[in-house]
Amino acid sequence: MAQKSHFKMQTQGIHKFRKTFPQLPGCVVENPTFVQTAHGNRLLTSGAWAWSRKPNYTADWVMSLNWGAIVGTATGIPYFYSVFFIVVLIHRCTRDFERCSRKYGKDWDEYCRIVPYKFIPYVY
């Protein structure tokens, strides 16, 4: 999300970023590419956002899976959260993509062509 946030700041003309935690190296995309929409927004197509449309969802789900993995495999109960969470994320993603399709129209189709994967690159 830092890349997306810094991209929005760059488009507003802000080029001085705070060096505070958790701003890690690589959070600023040099020469970012984007899809300019007729609606007036810019959809980022470089950095982590070039690999999938929801890289933040992937990171959140992997974190939830690791919380279950810490406990081990003696029981499936710790994995309930990650299974529930992936269902919630898939539903939210579907809802968001439908809303974006209505909002951006052909620009959204172009964005989906450039960034074809939803969560995990080369998988889904």
How does this model look, in words?
The protein is mainly alpha-helical and 124 residues long. It has one domain (2-114). The chain is built from 4 helices and 2 strands.
Could you list some keywords that capture this structure?
globular; 124 residues; two-stranded antiparallel sheet; mainly alpha; 4 helices
Strand and helix map with partners:
Layout: H1 2-11, E1 34-36, E2 42-44, H2 55-71, H3 80-104, H4 106-114
Antiparallel strand pairs: 1-2
Helix pairs in contact: 2-3, 3-4
What's the quick description here?
Helices cover 49% and strands 5% of the residues. The protein has 4 helices and 2 strands; from the N terminus they run αββααα.
- Structural class, please? mainly alpha
- Can you count the beta strands? 2
Strand content: under 5%
The percent range for helix content is 40-55%
Distance between the termini: 20 Å
- The chain-level mean pLDDT equals 88
Radius of gyration: 17 Å
Counting H and I runs of at least 4 residues, what is the number of helices? Answer: 4
Which stretches are low in confidence, meaning pLDDT under 50 for 5 or more residues running?
none
Largest sheet: 2 strands, antiparallel
The ordered string of helix (H) and strand (E) elements is HEEHHH
Strand order of the largest sheet: 1-2
* Bulk shape: globular
Number of discrete domains:
1
